[in-house]
Amino acid sequence: MAEFCLVMTTCPNQQEADQITAALLKQQLAACIQQQAVSSHYVWQGKLEQSSEILLLIKTTGHCYPALEAEIRKLHSYDTPEIIQLPIEAGFADYLQWVKDSCR
């Protein structure tokens, strides 16, 4: 498990994105979360779909990932939300220390 990671998830609207963002930060499961409007294209249940979503880029630690995933699953309205963990193999040491200090 990587010490630091970036977690990506998408939300159907700004309200849900803000709710998940606030919960993760209040519980110290993430140090920083960026939100960005995206247009998602995918196949769901055999049909080509397109939707406007809010992408969350969540900076956290590998240690916090299980609880972070559980919290997203609890708050997310999708049956099968995108929750992807990408390891951070290197980064500015001061920033990574801040991430570590910010997460429980």
From TrEMBL:
Q: By its UniProt entry, which InterPro entries does this protein fall under? A: Ion_tolerance_CutA, N-reg_PII-like_a/b, N-reg_PII/ATP_PRibTrfase_C
Task: Write the signal peptide boundaries.
Answer: none
Similarity section: Belongs to the CutA family.
Which PANTHER family does this UniProt record tie to the protein?
DIVALENT CATION TOLERANCE CUTA-RELATED (PTHR23419), FI09726P (PTHR23419:SF8)
Would you tell me the protein name for this molecule?
Divalent-cation tolerance protein CutA
- What taxonomic lineage is listed for the species of origin? Bacteria, Pseudomonadati, Pseudomonadota, Gammaproteobacteria, Alkalimonas
Write the gene name: cutA
